[in-house]
Amino acid sequence: MLCGAVHAAFYLWYGNPETDGQWRHWDHAVLPHWSPSIQAQFPSGQLFSPPSAPHSPFVPSLGLYSSADVEALRSQLESVRKAGIDSVMLSWWGQADASVGRDSQGVSTDELVPLVLDAAHEAGVGVTWHLEPYGGRTPESVGEDLAYLHERHGHHPAVWRQQHGSKQLPVVFLYDVSAEHSAGERERWRAMADSVRGSEHDAVLLSLFVDRRDVAFVVGAGFDGAYTYFASDGFTQGSTSSNWGAAREALDAEGKMFLPSVGPGYNDTLIRPWNGAQTKSRREGEYYDKMWDAALSCGATSWTITSWNEWGEGTQIQEARPHRNSEGWAYADYGQLGEGWYVERTRYWAEEAKRTCALVDGEL
């Protein structure tokens, strides 16, 4: 296992009229609450009108870019490299030629993979796979996806590989599979994992760690470890930084990896106005530093960042600039820290992570 690896969640669902003929995600609708009584207290429907009023609490320094814009990709991945990040966890919603291979706004991220791989290779950044819960996803379809990704992209030099036993394998983050804790579901995931072991499309398989039940899930499903993803400290047991030491020890005892996920803050109240309890202020960078300190202190040897560019949830570390909409309302920005502070600060923490790992390795 490569000690000190840092991976960042990277999203490909953005679009604008200049590149795509329409807005994508920057005009995201307000999401309803599942409880009618709570939903009645909040607005619903489409309330955002980019470019003046996008759906996110921050606005990128690049402007409201398209994920299909090659120059925007190059700019982002160069910043990713400057941040010391080893790989971008590419949000992937299924095969483009499948009817279910789309995200919630109908965007096919699969079609953009070749552009990202080439831009990442040019920048000297790796690419890992972040498999999202597309409609109809099953353990069996994920097995097919692993074969598909290997066939299409497995030999691209940008695909990031991790030492795993005697092999160098690509890394696959499986979002939201551990929610299915029944014995039958674990057996289906185990059958999928067993089917890829030793094959050309073998991979390091990491599932979402939501709570302590996921230790048994990771073991039973035959996965290699788990990551916590959520950037709101305390949202789940897994994303509660004070639990990371115990979670790492429990997985380590089973020979499995634990990857805590750090974030700079959290604010999704523009698209989920009923979710204010999970908002986490950035506190001029203090929140990010605190999460990183906990992540390095828990004994983990690899980490993920949520996120590089999930703008709708306000977890991005990508550069952001001040912005006012046409009515004069000011969007958030990084204040006196400056537009690129989180990129620079991530570089610091990535170097600390590698230094910490080197010290641990020297003691073994």
UniProtKB/TrEMBL annotation:
Keywords: Golgi apparatus, Hydrolase, Membrane, Signal-anchor, Transmembrane, Transmembrane helix
Membrane topology annotation: Single-pass type II membrane protein
Subcellular locations according to the entry: Golgi apparatus membrane
Pfam family, any one: Glyco_hydro_99
Transmembrane portions of the chain: none
Cross-referenced PANTHER family: ENDO-ALPHA-1,2-MANNOSIDASE (PTHR13572), RE57134P (PTHR13572:SF4)
Protein family membership: Belongs to the glycosyl hydrolase 99 family.
UniProt name for this protein: Uncharacterized protein
